């Protein structure tokens, strides 16, 4: 099978006729990242051929190295801020490209915003050309610092458009608008997943998000850093559950064009999470409180009624079990071959 060829020009040939089946070609942007690499592996296990597109700014080739020998995987190093041409038929596109960690997306905020807007439009154009179904990985950040809990998809959010998180929050909101307009104007089959805090193996040890921060700090014997009082809440979804939700949403044939929340509705305070990590690792790390971060949400909990009703989906991995897996993963990654886990 010929290798896909990236270019910087849009293709103007007639759309290919797509047949969804066991040999379908699926594109995953951000495919070498945390979520993307897990998604690529699951799709390949299901019989698909996958083309991952990633600029490798936060993704890693090592995350997908194990897929190279399958004969059903290609990785293209490309930034979706620029258009790309794929010369073979494509049946589906998962658009996961964009840093999701605040420290990472704030390093180059203009590029973060462009990835969400220009990147989404480039992928929508590719989907239109290929007659492919396309899914946008949106985020619970579109709800901002919510004024109601749990957050249903009908809630419009309370987002600061003029702050350090806006490049990500508003970029994702803009991408949702593009998906809405392309579906309305061109009849494109679109899907939007609003993803809540997800964790699991292959998160970057320096990712900067709360679960990876606490686990790495505890294993290294460093202080556990809590921003603010620690009473702010989060709902943590294990990566396997999230990937299952994304695939169910993409494969749903009932025309689910509106956004769908995907996350674990079980709510924990940040302080509760820190104490769980300390107990599981047996770490002597101390809690260290720092100033609260600007625009950091005080409460985050998904209403997943829609996902359960339309997709038959709900999380199955508890935080207790997921943390055990995370601790084992980071213990090995940090050179501790047998991380201590207290069940």
Report on the architecture of this protein.
This protein is an alpha/beta fold and 343 residues long. The chain has a domain at 25-200 and 237-262: Rossmann fold. Helix content is 35%, strand content 16%. It has helices at 34-45, 61-64, 102-105, 109-130, 166-186, 210-220, 239-251, 270-281, 305-311, 319-333; strands spanning 25-29, 49-54, 73-77, 92-95, 133-139, 190-195, 198-199, 224-227, 233-235, 237-238, 259-262, 267-269, 287-290. The strands form four sheets. Strands 3-2-1-4-5-6-11 form a seven-stranded parallel β-sheet, with helices on both faces. The chain has a two-stranded parallel sheet with strand order 7-10. Strand 5 (133-139), helix 5 and strand 6 (190-195) form a beta-alpha-beta unit. Helix 6 packs parallel to helix 8 and helix 6 (210-220) crosses helix 10. The protein is globular. Residues 1-20 and 336-340 have low confidence and may be disordered.
Return Rg in Å. Answer: 20 Å
Bin the strand percentage.
Answer: 15-25%
Largest sheet: 7 strands, parallel
Task: Report the CATH topology name of the domain at 25-200 and 237-262.
Answer: Rossmann fold
| Secondary structural class | alpha/beta
H/E series: EHEHEEHHEHEEHEEEHEEHEHH
Q: State the shape.
A: globular
The oligomerization state is single chain
Query: What's the name of the CATH homologous superfamily of the domain at 25-200 and 237-262?
Result: NAD(P)-binding Rossmann-like Domain
The low-pLDDT segments are 1-20, 336-340
Q: Which second-level CATH architecture of the domain at 25-200 and 237-262 applies?
A: 3-Layer(aba) Sandwich
Helix fraction?
25-40%
CATH class placement of the domain at 25-200 and 237-262: Alpha Beta
